[in-house]
Structure prediction request, 168 residues.
Amino acid sequence: MREVLERRFVRFLNDSEADEGFARKPDLIFLDGGKGQVNAVVPYLREMGIDVPVFGIVKDNKHRTRAIATGGEEISVSSMKAAFSLITAIQDEMHRSAIMYQKKLHSKITFENRLTSVKGIGEKKAAKLMRHFKTITALKSAEPGEICTVAGIKPETAAELLCLLNNI
Prediction:
C-alpha cells in the first residue's frame, strides 16, 4: 500500500512528472480494507505532507461491504441503501482495477519470456525492447535495424525475432 501511495503522490508533488490524472490532489482516498489499512496509510500520508481524508471499506465474513472506517471508528452503511450501493460499486471497481493491473503485468512478463526464446535475446534485452517499444504492435512494426540498435543484437537475431512476432 505504501508503494502505491508513494508512486501516486511523488508524481503529484513533483510537477515535472505529473500528468493530467496525477496533477490534482484527490478529494479523498478509499482503501479496500478496514481500520488496519487506514491506520497504516494515514501516518505515511502525513509524513509526505498530504492532507486527504482516508476511508477504509470494511467487509463482513462473506466479503460484503458493511461499514467504512476512519479515524479509528467504523460507520455502518448497511442500513443506508444509497451509501451502501455507492460504496459497494467503488469496492467492485477497485477490485476490477486491481485484477486488470495484475493481468496486464502478467501478460507483459509472459511476453518478455517469449522474446527470450529467441537465441541471443535474454531477459535484459527483452526488457530493453519492451521499455523502448512499449507494445507488441510497435515492436512488430519496427525496422530490424532499430531492433538491433535498441537491444544490441545481430541482424539475424532481429529477423528471427520478427519472424516469431509475426507468428503470434
DSSP finds seven helices and four strands in the chain. The first helix runs from residue 2 to 13.
